[in-house]
Amino acid sequence: MANFSPFELLKILTPRMIARGLIYPCRAAFHVTRSSQPDLRGLAFWRAVAAWLLSPPEPARPPLEAFSFPGDITAVEAGERGAIIIRAGGGALRVLPLAPDLLQIRVSLTGVFPEAFSYSLEKPESAWLPVEMSVRESDSQIELSTGRLTLVIEKSPCRLSLRDGDGLLFEEIEGVGHHAPDGQIVWRTALDEDTAFYGLGEKASRLNLAGQRFELWNFDPGGYDRGDDPLYMSIPFLLALSGGRALGLFFDNPYRAWVDLGTETPGLLEYRAAGGEFRLYLMVGTPAEVLERYTELTGRTKLPPLWALGFHQSRWSYYPQDRVLEIAREFRERRLPCDVIHLDIHYMDDYRCFTWNRDRFPAPRKMLADLREKGFRAMAIIDPGIKVDDQYAVYREGVRRDVFVKYP
Q1: Does 288 reside within a domain?
Q2: What integer pLDDT is reported at residue 383 of this predicted model?
Q3: Residue range 105-147, pLDDT digits in tens
Q4: In this predicted model, what pLDDT tens digit does every residue of 342-381 receive, in sequence order?
C-alpha cells in the first residue's frame, strides 16, 4: 500500500468512506452467498456468509511433495492436426506444432483432450496451417522437431527439454505436478542462470523480473509502493532472454497463479495455478519474432485514434463541472499541451456506472461540447462492476437477466 501523509489521508478518507470500508466485507459476503447459493435459508445461509468472511485470503500452496507427477512414459500416439500424444502413468501430454517456432503443450490427467476453450486466443489452433514435425524415438527419449525448435522428452520419468539451433533453452525438473485435494498444478523448469524475464502484466518492480516472485490475480490496491503485488492487471506471458536468444512462454490458464523467477535458485522458473488445465505455448526467435508470434496468437491492439496518443491529464477526480472547465481553460491560457481530461468516479451518481451526478455536473452535454470546442476530449472511467443497489435500474436488470459473473 502506498504511503500517504496524515494530511493526505484526511483529504482522501472521509468518515463515510471509512464506515463503508468496514461494512463492505460483510455486504460482499452476503451478496456472494445469496448469488452462489440461492437455495440456502435461515441459519444455513448465515453460516455460509460467516464461512465466506472467515475464508483465507488466498489458497494455500502445498509443498512439492504433495503433488503427483506424470511418471514413466507408456505410449506414444499420433493425434489430430499433427499433434503427438505422450501417455504416462499419471496422465497424458499433447504436443501440437502451430508454426515452426510455436508449440502448444497441454497436459491431461484423464488422457482426454477436448476442444480447447480459451478466453485469450484471437487465433485458435484450428486456424493455423499444418506444420510438419518429425518424430524420432529411442529407448530413453522421444525427439520432436519442426526445424526451428526441438522438444526432447525423457521417458523415465517423463520430462521435457526445449532446444533451438543454438542449444538448450530450458529443461523441466519433474514434469507438471497435480495436487488432487484442490486441483492445483505446478510446473518447474531450469533456464540459464543469467536469464532475464519480462512480462506478467502490471508489476511494481524493475523491468527485469528475475529473482522475484509474483502473483497473477487482478487486485485494486487503492495505492501501492515498489514491490507491492498483485496489482490491477495480470498477463500470464513471459519473455525470457539469455545470450541474445528469446523464449516466449504463454500460460493459457485464467486461474489465480504464482510465478517464481529464481528467488532461491537463479534461472529456476516455477509456475503454480490454483486450478485449470496446464496449457503452455512456447515460441522462439528474436525478441521481435517472439512478440510478433505472441500477438498473432492472442490478438493485436487496434490502431487508436490520433487524439488518444496525445497528452492526457488525469488524477483522482476533477469535479465539479466548473472545476473541469477551469482546468481546461488554464491549460490553454498557459499554452500547455493537453488533448484529454479524465473524469474519475466522482462524476457518477453515488458511484453508479452510466450515470451523472447532477449536483456536480448539472449540464454534462454542454460541458463536453465546451471541452470539444477547446480541443479536448473527455474520458470517463467505467468500472468493470455494477453497484449492488435495488434502486439502481442497471443492477435490477442485471439480476433479472442473470448476466453477472458469479463465484464458482
Answers
A1: yes
A2: 84
A3: 999 999 999 998 999 999 999 999 999 999 999 999 999 999 9
A4: 999 999 999 999 999 999 999 999 999 999 999 999 999 9
- Going across the sheet that includes 234-242, the strands are 73-78, 84-88, 91-99, 102-108, 278-285, 245-251, 234-242, 196-201
In a domain, 408, yes or no: no
**How far is Cα 66 from Cα 72, in angstroms, rounded to an integer?**
19
Are 222 and 1 contacting, i.e. CB atoms less than 8 angstroms apart? yes
* pLDDT average, residue stretch 40-68: 86
Distance between the two ends of the chain, CA-based, in angstroms?
A: 29
Q: Which residues pair with 92 in a beta bridge?
A: 87, 108
Q: For residue 259, tell me if it sits in a domain.
A: yes
User: The whole model's pTM is what?
Assistant: 0.83
Residue 395 inside a domain? The answer is yes
In angstroms, what CA-CA distances link 391 with 17, 185, 397, 406?
20, 43, 11, 21
Q: How many structural domains is the chain composed of? A: 3
Q: Give Cα separations from 318 to 325, 334, 349, 387 (angstroms).
A: 10, 19, 15, 21
Which structural domain, as residue segments, surrounds residue 334?
Answer: 306-401
